[in-house]
Design brief:
37% of the residues lie in helices and 20% in strands. It has 24 helices and 32 strands. The longest helix is centred in the middle third of the chain and has 21 residues. The chain is elongated, with a radius of gyration of 32 Å.
Length: 724
């Protein structure tokens, strides 16, 4: 009769084995990926910068680049066998490319010497969504598992794996003898199948009942599934490290964590290290106990030599190799603010449980070079400012970098600290924007057709009655500057001329322009708004400037490009809306006017740092210098920088002496390109006399080059020739 309950129990266990193995075996958080790194022929690059980038993305340098994931270098060139990858745009083949550097410009060639337009480094995983208390894991198919790894694992952990039915009687007998001898359970006789059962189905308690359950379930697992299916599950399931609150499971995730490379690019000694960790993940963790881990690795290599899988010569060579681990860059500290933005966007379409467990692949527009450069620049420059002035202790900052043309967010920095703080000031610090309001205001004037950048306006003192109060704005230098051109007034950030212009065109018109450019936050227009009393976050400022920076090609900011499942099927594609109610010509003329700020205005320090770069900029400083702002627009990026104190206290820095320094530091590390010189249809540049509204001949000396909306340019011209 006892056989009936046992049979029922086995039947129940059989159902558990099949249900779990056939169903979702693993709950894995969604992975977030960067944009691919696009290397373009003709772009400004330094050889050492490309070498550093390849090393950061897990490429190994050797004598040649024949193998995927390897690179080689000479005195003047770099070659690399770039990895294949799949993203929302499809499959991208691996390719070997040769990179040379001519006069600071990148030249990309195929192996046959033909020049190619671009090369791509695969998207990098920048983190997980809602993965803080879950598991770090990458799922492999059997075909994706390197055969040497399978061979080493079987040789060390279960050499009879292909010949038993889930349990090893000799191993169990050996364990019983050891345990009996020591009077306690000191050793198991587990096969790989038993280890998988223990990890997938059972607790870690050591009782004879649990051991019997493990044996029966192992036999059932072997009955239902092939050796290939079992070894694949083991490769994905095995526990290899604890990373804070996240458990590291599977050899693929361990390869990326410890070596920074895909599993199929590891060497025999690196496979041996990972297999050696199976016996004791904490004990043999190479980050915590490198000597112990190396000794364990060498023990595994010795087993391979004893079994004839390694020659004595190879063994002697491999045991001498040092353990080279990937540098740890604190992913959450670098990308935490960006992941906030990703989570915010996806929350409208996916619930948190799905994002936390379904192993979705989320492809974003983040540029890892820009992100690292922005984070480092913020930390360096804030630290330098704090050293110069002790009163700036506790200075905070935020930065948003977008692709100038597409509007994709390339980098987000939410604090001035080295580590992710949890408070993302790029999204949450809503502060007065100061003089950053001026380019949209001047654009409002240009849009009327009555004003051009050459038009003149008087920089004089004004008084406004606002309610029961009298408001008298002042220039930063407390002086007036008489009659000035519009381009001068904006470049030099003259407050009085700006308010006078806003009064002439109408304050409500300025408010309408701000809303049409993308300000969604509710505000009431009044005279002080013309000098930046409007409160926005750095992210909102970036959105405000995007139509101008892109000259009408984009208006909204993009974060997530697409979401795919673990089988590379598209779940959702995110397309940006582009609805800019201004002509490309108006936006381009506005952007061109902003290039005067570095040349003659408040951003001259930035122009001095990049004398050959043509870019647009605007500084911003609010009342009592509580906020320091800077917007810089190059051929590649539109960047917004904010510095301030969380307690909203006055500072000793302006937009020029604070935020501008962060932008300069950032731009030095991203190989900047100039804004294009061409203008869209409906706009053109002319050389115009400074004193007379006339097109100037080449011989004229007192002239300025300005962009005009066609129809507003001077109708008369002068040769500047005077007969004597």
């Amino acid at each position: 009769m006892a056989s009936i309950p046992f049979a029922v129990w086995v039947w129940w266990l059989n159902g558990q084995v099949v249900e779990r193995f056939e169903g979702q075996k693993w709950q894995v958080p969604s992975e977030v990926y960067s944009a691919p790194i696009i290397l373009s022929s003709g772009a400004p690059w330094k050889k050492q910068d490309l070498e550093s980038l390849l090393e950061e993305t897990g490429y190994r340098f050797g004598r040649n680049s024949q193998k995927v994931g390897w690179a080689a270098r000479s005195q003047t060139k770099v070659s690399a066998h770039l990895r294949s990858y799949v993203d929302h745009l499809g499959f991208h083949e691996s390719e070997r490319r040769i990179f040379s550097f001519e006069n600071g410009r990148l030249v990309i060639q195929a192996l046959n010497g033909d020049e190619v337009d671009e090369a791509r480094i695969e998207p990098q995983r920048i983190g997980y969504l809602y993965g803080g208390n879950t598991e770090s894991r990458q799922i492999l198919t059997y075909k994706e598992i390197p055969q040497p790894l399978i061979d080493i694992l079987v040789a060390v952990e279960d050499r009879d794996f292909y010949h038993h039915w889930g349990i090893s009687l000799t191993g169990i007998a050996r364990a019983v003898i050891v345990n009996f001898t020591h009077g306690a359970r000191r050793q198991g006789g587990s096969t790989l199948t038993q280890q998988l059962v223990k990890n997938m189905y059972l607790s870690s308690e050591r009782t004879y009942t649990r051991k019997l359950t493990e044996v029966v379930m192992s036999l059932l697992l072997e009955y239902h599934y092939s050796k290939e299916a079992i070894i694949t599950a083991y490769m994905n399931e095995v526990y290899l490290a604890q990373l804070g609150s996240s458990a590291l499971h599977g050899f693929a995730a361990a390869s990326q964590h410890f070596f920074g490379r895909p599993l199929n690019e590891l060497n025999i000694d690196e496979f041996a290290l990972l297999v050696g960790m199976v016996k004791g993940p904490s004990l043999y963790n190479p980050e915590r106990s490198p000597n112990r881990a190396k000794a364990r690795r060498n023990t595994v290599l010795a087993v391979l030599k004893e079994q004839g899988r390694l020659s004595d010569k190879d063994y002697q060579s491999l045991i001498k190799r040092p353990i080279r681990l990937a540098s740890k860059k604190k992913e959450r500290s670098i990308y935490g603010d960006y992941l906030d933005l990703v989570a915010m966007q996806l929350s409208r379409d996916f619930d948190e449980t799905t994002l936390a467990t379904k192993n979705l692949r989320i492809y974003t527009g983040v540029d890892i070079r820009a992100q690292r450069a922005a984070s480092a620049a913020m930390q360096r420059q804030v630290s330098a400012l704090e050293r110069r002035d002790a009163k700036l202790k506790g200075l905070q900052g935020a930065m948003v970098v977008t692709d100038r043309v597409t509007g994709q967010v390339r980098a987000i920095v939410g604090s001035s600290g080295q580590y992710y703080t949890g408070f993302n000031r790029a999204l949450g610090a809503v502060r007065p924007i100061g003089s950053l309001v001026k380019p949209p205001l001047y654009m409002s004037a240009l849009a009327t057709g009555r004003y051009t950048w050459w038009s003149k306006i008087e920089d004089k003192r004004l008084r406004f009655k606002v309610g029961d109060q009298i408001w008298e704005p002042e220039n930063y230098d407390r002086k007036t500057h008489g009659v000035v051109h519009l381009y001068e007034a904006m470049a030099k950030s003259y407050n009085l001329a700006t308010v006078s212009l806003a009064e002439q065109i109408g304050f409500d018109r300025v408010g309408d322009t701000l809303r049409q450019l993308g300000v969604k936050r509710s505000f009431t227009m009044h005279p002080a708004m013309a000098l930046g009393a409007l409160e926005l976050s750095p992210f909102e400022v970036s959105r405000l400037y995007q139509p101008i920076a892109s000259q009408g090609k984009s208006s909204e900011l993009g974060v997530v490009l697409a979401v795919m499942d673990q089988n590379d099927r598209m779940m959702k594609r995110f397309d940006q809306q582009n609805d800019v109610p201004f002509t490309d010509a108006l936006l381009a003329v506005t952007l061109d006017g902003m290039t005067k700020t570095p040349k003659i205005g408040t951003a001259r320090a930035a122009q001095a740092a990049f004398p050959d770069l043509n870019f647009a900029a605007k500084t911003g400083t609010t009342n009592q210098q509580k906020d320091s702002w800077f917007v810089g627009i190059t051929g590649d990026y539109s960047s917004t920088v904010w510095l301030g104190d969380d307690n909203n206290v006055p500072l000793s820095i302006t937009g020029s002496s604070g935020a501008q320094k962060v932008w300069i530091d950032f731009t030095k590390n991203v190989n900047p390109r100039s804004l294009p010189t061409s203008l869209p249809s409906g706009a053109a540049r002319y050389d115009v006399l400074d004193d007379e509204f006339e097109i100037a001949a080449s011989r004229c000396s007192d002239k300025i080059t300005l962009a005009f909306i066609l129809g507003t340019e001077p109708k008369d011209s002068t040769s500047c020739f005077w007969p004597f």
